[in-house]
Structure formats: structure tokens, C-alpha cells
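I need you to check the entry underneath: sequence plus C-alpha cells. Let me know what the C-alpha cell row says about the fold.

>
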Amino acid sequence: MWLKWWEKISGNGYKINRQYYQYIGSKRVKREFWRRLLLTWVLGWTVVSLWIFCFMSLQATEKRKETLASMCDERARIVQDQFNVSMNHIQAMSILISTFHHSKSPSAIDQRTFASYTERTAFERPLTSGVAYAVRVLHYEREQFEKQQGWVIKRMDTLEQNPVHKDDYDTEALEPSPIQEEYAPVIFAQDTISHVISVDVLSGKEDRDNVLRARESGKGVLTAPFRLLKSNRLGVILTFAVYKRYLPSNATPNERIQATNGYIGGVFDVESLVEKLLEQLASKQSVIVNVYDTTNHTHPIAMYGSNITGDVFNHVSTLNFGDPFRKHEMHCRFKHKPPWPWVVITTSIGILVIALLVGHIFYATVNRIATVEEDCREMMELTKRAEAADVAKSQFLATVSHEIRTPMNGVLGMMHMLMDTDLDVTQQEYVRTAQESGKALVSLINEVLDQAKIEFGKLELEKVLFDIRSILDDVLLLFSDKSQGKGVELAAYVSDHVPKLLIGDPGRFRQIITNLMGNSIKFTDKGHIFVTIHLVEEIVHSIEVDNESNPENTLSGFPVTNSCLSWKGFKAFSQEGPLGSFSSTSTDLINLIVSVEDTGDGIPRESQPLIFTPFMQAGSSISRKHGGTGIGLSISKCLVGLMKGEIGFASEPKTGSTFTFTAVFTNGLLSSNESKTPQINNQSQPASSEFEGMNALVIDPRPIRGKVSQYHIQRLGIHVETVSDLNQGLSTINKGNAVINIVLIDQEVWYRDSSMSSHFFNSTRKVDPGLPPKLFILVNSSSSSPKTSSVTSDVDNPTIITKPLRASMLAASLQRAMNVRDKRTLNRDLHNLSLSHLLVGRKILIVDDNGVNRAVAAGALKKYGAEVVCVSSGKDAISSLKPPHQFDACFMDIQMPEMDGFEATKRIREMEHNENMEVSIKWHVPILAMTADVIQATHEECLRCGMDGYVSKPFEAEQLYREVCRFFLAS
């Protein structure tokens, strides 16, 4: 309900949106309107960009002002703090003088002591250029004071009226101070200003006002800026009064005047003071600083600074030097004018450009909507055509596959029938070659079909019970002739942890192994090809891999690639990957890892990224040398993905390649009781009861190769020991712990030293003369050793067993050599002999519109004694199978003119159903589909319409025989 409602709303919205765009893009809306709208858009955004420019410029200006204010306040604070430090130290000196000069009799301070002390403590007053002390002398005390000091009190106002330079200054040239009520001559001074000793500070106008205010207020007071004596630099004097006794803070001015003993002052060179402090700041060069005395705000006095012009912005910071009477200010401005506001300019211009682009895009969009809709309609039409082409391609592929398989069925069938006629050797070779070529063509068709199924997602996997070790034996048998012809050692090993029975798709698993081994055998001319199957848990938990990169520990002694690199990056080996799901609680899932290792040509590095691409090969030269379509690895990768696994490889040119893949199956031993398909078709049962309890000895210098031999022998129920040379083997046999019945020796050991081999042979005969152990030599090919004849009972030569080892082949070789025969084999032969007579007297109907196919099928079934009737259409099949009839089975083609096999089968089943309703006899003739269409959907359709089985073309006589025998055995 909700889905329908959403589709309705979405559909209506789409229609409204489409009608709107059709409207704004149609000719009903005049172009002039859109032009005016575009012009209005441009003008509006131009105004907006100008406003943004002004706003950001104002913000930048305010930020610049804030920066200047912060820098100026910082400088004012530093100057003020440093001045207060010096002021506090000068005030402390007033207490020192009151204590050690006026309170001591005689005084503990003289000029020399004062000069030395002030010089040594100058670091505490870094901003002062000198300190001096002037004592208060009343008029009646002047004469006695001058006699005591040895000099006359000098007046200061002469210097203020006529300033002198440093070199012209002479204290002796000053006039005596005029008669007045009291004097304040300097008696102590720092060496830097010792020239002011004997000068009466009350005789100068600025100093007199300073001294009077200091003793009345009890605080430090400052003079107005003036030119300092001798240095002629602009400065101020800080003055504190020195009292006779301790005064309370609320003392009256008269009480302070009466208690005054003298005045201590500090000379500050303002220009040096400010300059030193500003030099400590890194941004000194970017800001211009001016300091003013603004006590008289109408006529401020410049204390520091220059007349250099700078930025128009000016900030004023107040300076507080502790004198409430004196006012000081610091004026700051940037030295350089502000730069161009490029950020502001680019931002405003950028916004305007973006707005213009948006307007242009919108205007162009409106003009292009009609064109886009037309293109959309054309694209929809092309999409429909493409979908129709895909359907036609799929149909074409199925049709072509069927049409190719139909004549191929006739070709291969007639070839097979021709092989049963009397032919000479040359003719048989020609027929065999033609038959192999036909099978290669069918294999190619199967690969192309598999690729097509994968592309369309039609490939599905079966879930049947199978024996993975038997599948591996079958694949080894398939490539054994090629490996022996090349002298390449071929071997397989399955871990004991892998369950005997699994549930999955054995055909597709065999296809992957066959593709990988086919590539290996194609590109390997020496060394070995080694297939291993383990559980992923074995590799993860023990990191025990049979294939090491050390040449001494490989199957053939040739170097191989590092197999770990082939599964590097697999999710199954990471904690976050699928391995977490294969814990001990999920024992029904089996995660296998399969490796195919070879010592062939390897894959060129430039071709490795494309190795799994369909129809791609390593190079044109390799393609010419080895042939092939390059599709096998691509199909294998897709099949591995369907098995919930991963595939990878490691390859080194001139060394070889290792392909590794994982696959997930179900444990067949746990699920076999519940499985609906418990039968295992065509699976060998290698274990022979007559070998159980026997002991075997394998002599092989290579541990891996010995392990492979041990694996195959143990499958026969034989206990196996492995040693590396003949001496160890002889020692094992002579121990007598267990009777050794069988000795298998690798050719590398046996033919290395003939004298040692003869000694070993003779020694084994002496162990138990009545029943010595049987000796077998394991060789790679019939031409790989000088002794190729197999003698089963002769004591002179051991029996030759040609690799690759397989359980059934090994069992047969041991049986022949030891003159034993498996009872189960005998029973199986008798059973097969009885099966071969199942079709004798059976009447079978073949329905096919192609005469050649009818002849092939009839010939194959008549070979087993069946009575065959052939018809060419579905209507004839219905007439022939109308109950009551005498047919025991029917092979029916699917694609036939007028009426196909599906429709014919449905009508036959309807007839049988109606007949069963009337009589007690149950009519049901087995009908098996016989077609070249091998798509999975066709198989399902066969079962759906009532067919009992499925035979794909081209078929062989044994295939028809097996399918029809299933029903006769059940009956």
C-alpha cells in the first residue's frame, strides 16, 4: 500500500516537474522576460557585491584600529610599569637617607658612600640617569652649613635662562644662591650627575614648585619636561620629601613642611627611557610612538617622538606615573599606510562573478531545456533498443549454442559409432583425432556459455554430496598423460582435517581445478605441478604451508614462488573477514584453501593485473605458442566468488606461479543423514580391505614428496613410515618392530647409486626369505628411468609405478604385484556385468526432429541391447506414448517444430493422469530431456513440465546408458 502511494506521489511530482520545465523552456514565455530577469539578477548582485566590499572594508578598518589600540596600550603599560618600579626604588632610598643620615650622629652617609651605593644599585632603577639628595637648610643655618660643606650654595635659575652644553658646563662658574628663607642644596649625588652638588634646587622655578608640592603632599611629584644639565636632553625629575620622623597619612601640609629634612630626586631621560623599552618589542618598526605631557592640554609638551607622517589612524593611551597633577599621554600610529584590501576585493569580485555565472547557467539552462528533453526522448528510445539488443543477444547465444551443439552431437556420435567398426590403425588415429577436436570445440562452447551465464547472472551452483579426494584423483588422471609426456612431476595432497564428504557443486569445483591445472601444465616444461587442499583454519592457526620457497624443500627441487603472497589480503585470513563465522560453533561450514603450484614460465609483471580479464592472455607470443582463449581464469574467479571464496596468485617470471583460492562448503559427514541427494555418482572408493593392517616404507629424500606418497598410501588403510635414504630404510626394516610389507622408493634414490641399490635389494631378501617386502620404484614417466618394465613376481627387478599417484591406480598396482584381488572389486565387476544387461529387451522411444541425432542415440542404445523406436515430432511422441503402450523410457528433444518437447511432455503427463484416474495401473514412463540448450532455466523448465532427467548434447553412449539405467535399477 505504501509502495503504491509513494509511486503515485513520485509519478505526479515527476509529471508536474516535467510540465514546469516544458513550460519555462517553451516559446510561450518570451525571451525578453528572461533577458530582463537576467539583467535584474546582474544589477542586484552588483549592489550586493558593493555592499559586501564596503562591509568587509569597514571590518578590516576596525580590526586595524583594534590592533593599533592593543599595540599602543601594551607600550603604555610597559613604560608605566617600568617607571613605577624605578619610582618605588627612589622612594625606598628616601627611607634609607632618613635612617642612616638624619637619625645618626654623626651621619653614616657621605658623598662617597652615596655615590658608590647608588652606582651599585643602578640596575634596580634601569630608567633613571641619576639620583641626588638635597638637604633643607634654613637661612640662619646657611653660613654654618657652607663652612661645614666647604662650598657655597649655588643658584640654578641662571642655568635655566642660559643653558650650557656638556663641555661648557662648570659648577664653579655658577653664582651663589640669593638670600632667602630656606635653601635646598644638593649634598649627595650619583656620579653620573655629580655636577649638581651645591646647586640650590629651590632657586629654579620648576624644581622649586616640584619640591614644595612633594613635601606638602608626601608623594612623588614630577617636573615638567626640560633640558637636563650638561646632557641637554629632554627629561623630568621625580622628587620625594625626606621627613624627620614618621608621619601619619592624614598629616597636614604644615606638619609635613615642619618635619621635612630634605628632598631626594631621580633624573629620568625620557627619550632614552622610551627608546629602550620600545626596542624590546618585535613590532617596534611598524608603529610610531609619541609621548606628551598634557598637564596643560592646550599646549602639550612633546617628551618623545618624531614628526614622521604615517597612517591616518591615531590611538591615545593614558600614562599614569603616580603624580596626580601631571598628565601624560602616548600617541601611536602605524608607520605605513594600510595595504590594498585584496581579500575584500577578491571576495566581492568573486561573489559577483559567481552570481553572473549562476545567472548565465540558469539562462542557458532555460534555453536548453527543450533540447535536453528531446535528447532525453532519444536516449530513452536508444535504451529500449539496447535492452532489446541484450535480449536478442541472449536469445542469439542460446540459439547459436543449440544450433552448434546439435550438429556436434551428430559428428561426435557418428565418430563414436565409427570407432566400433573395423578400421585399420591409420583410420582409427584419424577418427580419434577428429573426435578429440570435436570435444575441444564443445569445451570451448561450454566456456563461452559459462561466461555468458556469469554476465547475465544466470549461473547457479548445485548442492550435492561429493568426495573431494576422488575429484582430485579424476583431475590428476585427466592430466597424467600430458605431465608424463613432458616429464613434469604431478602430485596432489589433501589435508587429513578436510572431511571425506562435502556438500556443494562438484562439477564447478572440478572446473576450477581443471582450469588452473590446465594453465599450469600448458606453461610448465620442467619441475612439478603440486595441488594442495587445506582448511583455512590450518593455515591461519599454524601457518604450516607445505610449499616453502626453499628449493631443497619443494616437490621437484626447483625454486617456487612464495605461496603466502598468493593469498595475501584474503578476507578469510583477517579477523574482520569471514573467518570469524567459521568458529567452533559453525562446524557444518568448511572453508577450504586450494593452491596450485607450478615451476613454469611465470606471468610477466606487466600482464599480471589483467590475468583475470576475459579473453586476455599474458602476451601474443604465449598465445601463439600455447593457444587458448584466456577465458578459463575469468570463469574460475566468478565461480570462486559464487562459492563465497577469493582467488589470488603469486608469480615470478622464469620461476613459476602459485594460484590459490578459497571456497565454502558444508560438512557432508554431518549433513549426509538429512541430505536429499545422498548418492555420490561416479566416485571411486579406493580403500581396499585386503591392505588394512599392512605396513609400508617410503624412501624419498624430499619431505614434501614423501608426504604426498604417504597421503595416497594411507588412503588404502596402510600404515606408512617415511625415511630419506636407503641406509635409513634398511635400518628401519631390520629393527623388527613391525613387519614391512611394502617398500616404495623414489627413482632419485634408487638410480643414484646402483651398488647401494643392489645391497639394499639383497638385504631385504635376507630379512624374511619366505616373504620379503615388495619393492616398488616411483618414477615420473615411463621414459624417465632405464628400467621401465614392470615385473610383479620377479626377484631381480622391483615394480615400476608411474606418477602421478592416485589411490585407485596405486591399489591396482599393489594388487597386481602382490597377487591379491579386492573382493569388493570382484563384486563390483559382477554388478557392472549385470548392469550391462539392463537394457536387453527394453523398448525405448527417441523423439528428435534431426535424423542424425536420432541415428546417434539409437545406435548408442542398441549397443546395449535395447529396442529403439524413433519419431520426428512431438505429435508422434504423444501418439506413441498414449496408454496403453509398450515403451519403458523416452528420450525427447526440446526444440522441435510445431510442438516442442515441453508441450509434448505436458500432454503425455495429462494423458497418464487421466488414465490413472480410471484404472488401477499407474502409468508413468520416464521421459528424459535431450537438448543442446544447457541454460539453468531450461533445466528447471524440464523438471517443471514433468520430465524426469536431463541429457545435454553432444552426448556419449555411456551418458545415455547411465541416465536410463537409473530408472531401471530403481524398478
User: Anything to note?
Assistant: DSSP finds 27 helices and 29 strands in the chain. The mean pLDDT is 79.
